[in-house]
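The following record pairs a protein chain with its ligand, phosphoenolpyruvate.
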Amino acid sequence: MRTILIAGNWKMNMGPKETAEFFTQLDDAAQKNIEGVEAAVCPPFVSLSAAFSARKSGSAVKIGAQNVHFEDNGAFTGEISTAMLNVLGCDFVILGHSERREYFGEDDAVVNKKVKKALADGITPIVCVGEVLSERKEDRHFEVVKEQAAGSLDGLSADELTKIVIAYEPVWAIGTGETASPEQAQEMHAFIREQLAALFNEDAASTVRILYGGSMKPDNADELLKQPDVDGGLIGGASLKPADFSQLVAIAAGQK
Ligand code: PEP
């Protein structure tokens, strides 16, 4: 069985002070080691240290970053390396988020380099794919997601595939309050798994976790997480509130 992952993407929110407060306010229940459920938050770079310091000892909540560069070091102003994330102890890194694709020009080739670098340095990439509204309206969503997945994961071995997490995030559902229906999510997740089976193999495709992202919140999480190919959520807005995040972890625990 695949372990459910509830991962918070804090985007450009939550400075060090708010980050420390978040951990203080998080329910103990959400920080327990729950069999079959993993929880993680991905604060901005400047708040990572605060997150590690504020996380209670023994807390099972993992910490990740929202981006990383693919080179080891050098003249890359404003960038952060995997070695830097590893010094802190980051477990995850979000790669290829639609906001990075749209505002920072990241394409599948760049995402692919970052995925390979994160894997080589032992950080689990959460690789985002998803269509924009016009692509769904034109019925091109499967084609677009297929191309993003193939490009972002190009050259990985089947074994490496099992070490990553994929997040299907329909762009039209991110931060809009509009969620994909559980049926739409399941349909796309099953499609992605089918593509991965063809590109890699059945075993690896059935092992890899595919998260749903796009306005997931306590109100709609249960139905989404019930879908057989939905293995968790990448959550923006609702992950900023300790009570909502705790509730999302509890809902995931209830799926077991
Ligand atoms: C995201 O940015 O990854 C996301 C899913 O955001 P939201 O939950 O706010 O739609």
